[in-house]
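Quick one - inputs below.
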Amino acid sequence: MRLPTLVFTVLLTLSPAASSRELIRGNGPEPATLDVHRCQEVACGNLLRDLYEGLVTEGADGAIIAGAARSWRVSDDGRQWQFRLRDELCWSNGEALTAQDFVASLRRAVTPQTAAPMAQLLRPIANASAILRGEAAPESLGVTAVDAHTLHINLDEPVPLLDRLALPIAMPVYLPAIAVHGVEHTRPGRLVGNGAYRLSGWTPHASVEMEKNTFFHAATDVAIARVRYVVTEDAGSELQRFLAGDVHITETVPPKPLPVLRAQFGERLRISPYVGSFWFGLNLTREPFRDNPALREALVLAVDRDILTRHITGLGEQPAFGIVPPGTRGHAAPVLPMAQLTPAARVARARERYAAAGYSADRPAQLEIRYNTSTLHRKLALAVAAMWRQTLGAQVRLRNEEWKVFVQNRRARVITQVFRGGWIADVNDPLDFLATFSGPDNPLNTTGFADPEFDAALTRAALLPDGTERTALLTAAEARVLSAHAVVPLYFYSSKHLVDDRLEGFAGNPLDHHATRWMRWRDGEAP
Amino acid sequence: MRWLGLFATRLAGGLLTLWLLVTLCFALLHAAPGGPFDTEKAAPPAVQAQLAARYRLDQPLSRQYLAYLGDLARGDLGPSFQYPDFTVNALIAASLPVSAGLGGAALLLALLLGVPIGVFAAAHEGGRLDRLLMALTATLSALPKFVLAPILILLFAVTLKWLPAGGWVAGDWRYRVLPIVALMLPNLAWCARLTRAGVCEALGSEWVRAARGRGIGRARLLLVHALPAALLPVTAWLSPALIAVITGSAVVEHVFGIPGMGRYFVQGALNRDYTLVMGVVVIAGALVIVANTLVDGLRAWLDPRLRTSA
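Output:
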């Protein structure tokens, strides 16, 4: 061994290196909060799924399974839910966790003073809407503790409740810690959870450390003793850390051609369908798209999605003609004639509709695509602009905006024409994707799509339990948005990670949720 | 008394500068389009109203400004908009020592290595070693940190696997090595080049020639007669270098994933985290004023002519 190598080896042996049993996970940006009710980003959601457990939770494959509740039953009309909690349920400090704790936590979630950004996901619970508007007391929420181990939830709308109860917004919080420490109850040593892990360290903008919670009801099945989530804001730097062995699971993968990544990483590259859709929105409230369905249709037809997903995104994304991704629970995609056409027929039809809209080589459409700062967004906008120019002869400008400015402009619907849009599911439900197009005053309705029949279909679907009638209504609603050409669907997302090949239990799933409790090091191969 | 008056003048000037800085920064932040709570998935109106009230955004701008100045006078930098679990004081208290520790170590090493290298090169002026050292330092000083840092990672972390490729673990020195080297190398290059130029110039001056004429040895000539005067350009460079490394090099912190103050400025601005950006500006501004004062003092100590003019 050469001298420098020897010196470094000795120093490394002496240094307080990471524990040999510690799992290190890339987690993207710094989590904004560890308060379950204030979390709205992926980064904090990942941590909270290790620190807390809702009445139900998600298995490694994303299926909803029993969590803090060991069983439940639902009334025939889908509005009355009764949960039976596990007998041995404890907080991470050893105190008993009861049904009353869930009642108090859900009340806190919908109290306006908590300012929980995702509280509207609990809106189907009786009285939640009125409480959120400040028109009713939190105590009137339709959640009651029948006894210490039985919880009753009364719904106004028979939504698929279990999906929502697995979200951070429905996880229990330890109110005595909040009473004593206020917003600082999320610090190590103060945060009391009920998940598989307990918080042991938090260095802002560096890492969040956790260790196994011995009071967790399934602690004996939790194999990874310690986990450290590290902030990885840059995909390129995260990749270097993975290559150096400093990170065992990456949050994402930098955009590189799939064959190159496959050749370099083989089975360590994990790509799965992800319930998210990417589209370009068209502002229907102003020229040139207002009252101009022919132009909108021409633009939708003139995009070659295969080229986009093969050469621009290139990491397992699926070409999209619709809004709701395949694999969304209770979804049936509408039959779209456009998707059945050959590429050549699609181009011919696009030109025909462009001409019908009154445009030609002498009078080309003047368009502007607006997107927020991102290399991928710029590439996509460039490619789509080129397709519109080549196929139709449209003149297209690109406008890049910083995120906050972009969000504000898109919502205002005053200066936008074509804009980057999309949706990642909060819950695995087609309604989640379609609701963004309902109501002209809806701040999420950035296209300004207004269709009373569409709104009525969504309202009706919200009142139906899962089943064929609900699915049919949502399929018809999706078809209405698409036939109005309010958006140019481009692709459905995929999740992508690099995973250390000594790790087992990391399974692809539609919401890209991967709780550490399902993972383990292959015997004898811990790093 | 003269020193006391000078100190009072510098203090008043510093406070005035800080006030102007705070006012300008406050105005610019609030004039920028997009607000701290503009997100893709908008919160319900009642929630937005609560957030606005919590951060005083429902008040007129003039009242927000006066309230901020009042809090600032009490040493309270306010709650962070983006990270509601933390106050700005807490975030800066955690990040400033990291930035200052790395930056201070990098600068100290740059001085400890750069000055001898500069003296050595000057002693061999025009020789092969001098030309080699100057070529090396010219390359290093021209190399951007966003190029240098990944090269270091590729070499020492990915290829040799001697050190971590990034991240931060409190108390583990291994995570500090590459960031310090990345921060140090360009500073070392500047320091060496400035020292060499200063020593070469001093060696050609009349008083050094006179000293040489008196038969003083080469080493003493270099270190006692030429070096103090040659260090003046280095001290002039020291002030901006000190400020740059202590307030955090955002690029190096970003590449290595270090929880320093530089990143808060960038992230805070992007997130419209008004209080966090203001907090970083106030602390950085105060550091700039203190650093300038200290360096001015050092220069006056090294050069009596500056003392007289002051």
